[in-house]
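chain below, 200 aa
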Amino acid sequence: VALFALGGSDGSADGLLLTMSIVAVVVPLSITQLVDGGLAGLIEKVPALTLENKIGSTTYDVHFILGMLIATTIGTASGMAPRFYSVVDEKAAKKVGILAGLLFLTFPLLFTVPPLVARVLWPEVSDLPQELIRLREGAPQEFVFVAVVQKVLPAGLLGVFLAAMFAATMSALDSFYNQIAAILSRDVYKGVFRPKATDK
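prediction:
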């Protein structure tokens, strides 16, 4: 039910289920890479975090965080719309909104721990495995999560992780394309140009 509420009825819960399963395994395994201290040890070992970071040509500061927050909020709100008008009444819509909101809070917890572990294992981006740096010479920081996954997962599970990421991406694209197609056909074509057009 939780994954359905997050993923929606469009089938994207399948990719989400795979991704969350792998990440749930990666988080404790990545913490074990620190040898001792567990989560408390991780908090102690992570260098002081700042809001002024420059990696390559990109500056990660307060403006970047605010921009990401706004973009994510708008993107999530537009994708959440079907969850609210696909329910019985307003009371059910409110419950769906609260449940989905609470479930979305688990994402930062799960997806933030491995990059923090990476910050301890590889203090500088240039310390990442060279094969990953060569994949994206201009922005190796985009492969930090992949570096942790590659370090903690055996080859078989690494393949499952890649399959999960592809499944989640394809599922999201499929939902997005269907949504846009519906808007163009129903709201634009029929709503503006051909009001009398039939479903056919």
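Residues 20 and 107 are 9 Å apart (CA to CA). The first helix runs from residue 2 to 7.
thats it, cya
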